[in-house]
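An instance as discussed:

___
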Amino acid sequence: MSYPYTSLSDFVSFLEGEQELRRIAVEVDPILEIAEITDRVSKRAGPALLFEHPKGSRYPVLINVFGTHRRMALSLGVESVAEVALRIEELLEIKPPSGVLGKLKMLPKLAELGSMAPKIVKGGPCQEIVRTDGFSLFDYPILKCWPEDGGRYITLPLVFSKNPVSGKRNCGMYRMQVYDETTTGMHWQVHKHGAQHFREARAQGQKDPDARRRMEVAAAIGSDPAISFAAIAPLPDDLDEMMFAGFIRGTPVEMVRCKTVDLEVPANAEIVLEGYVDLDELRTEGPFGDHTGYYSLADPYPVFHVTCVTERRSAIYQTIIVGKPPQEDCFMGSAVERIFLPLIRKQLPEIEDLHMPFEGVFHNLVLVSLKKRYPGHARKIMHAIWGMGQAMFSKCIVVLDSGNDLRDYGKVVWRALNNIDPERDIQFTLGPVDSLEHASRLPNFGSKMGIDATRKWPEEGFTRPWPNEIEMTPEVKKRIDELWPQLGLNTN
């Protein structure tokens, strides 16, 4: 596989050639106006947008690049995200060889795995311009997305930090509310790796009163799209996001050392903000119009102080808006669902398919089709999903028998509602919930619901006959198909 983009500009040029990007030459305000235009375009499955003259800034704004299934696949260098899922599935099937010949046959695959590791280089385009003073975050066309937002937000940053104990790198995507020219919030939700690094750093500081009360952070804005996707991927704790980006690209991610902090960032990034989070400082962040379609509430979060800015000479400011679905992030979430299904099946092979409808905003609804093997199997699957990484946030899980098309919502609802006895088939439990969950009884803690919509077995207490679904015979269907054109009826 040869990944076709070495930079965000490469991807922009490719999208333009594919008629998937529209340039906007009219001056448009980053305060609310770009968001309103993008929301209308995203709801119509429209193109990526490049606003060439955002009001008050010389940097063009790129948005909605992941806003369809096709563009999401193209961003990963494939025709379908299923191709990436297949590569993961093939890796998962590798078994240790028993003989010398088997070991020799594995060498090419091992070499491929080794080539995914990020590579440190001496310099890169992201450091063509370096500023340690005289800069302002308001130089950039940072959006205010919705009327009640607490301010402008950097919404698509690749935030790099290191675990202060292990030194392991993390790259996550956490929104950053701009407070002033050099200061932002850092929305490290309690369950995220960035928040864990922050807690570890504070704990270390408590053991050593003389320790520096700062945690170094760098935020890259804009890169080739595989790197941006890796930042949102629900990876295992021990897998470096840049390694995963290398896997997607088929070539290692080139990283450069930051100028003022002990961190590395992608060499092909457009803009990099270097600085630190003060371990003793929290500040109110929010409200923010979130992907749930509601404003997330204002809460105290760590504060990021920018001490250095580096960028390309012709940098593009890439961003995203979230809100009522469908939005650009829906297609990113759909790609996550498809690409990581092989990992889920590796642990739960009885799962035939899994789907998160856009209306469920990722964590509110998970549909599962199950190859049912024993009584209570659906409940086992519910609890397994609740115990699996970020899937623990799933508020409602509906389990159906195998053979159901989980994207045919009419049939899913019809079968589920027909197949349940509510008192018998609905399971409630308590546990962690997403930080954006506004309906839970407490922040980050609430209830979840599982619905067993499978056909019930006698061993599950159902002793009556289970009825057959109404279906016409194939022979009659075939005869009417042949007769249909002569009937003069509407065929739509």
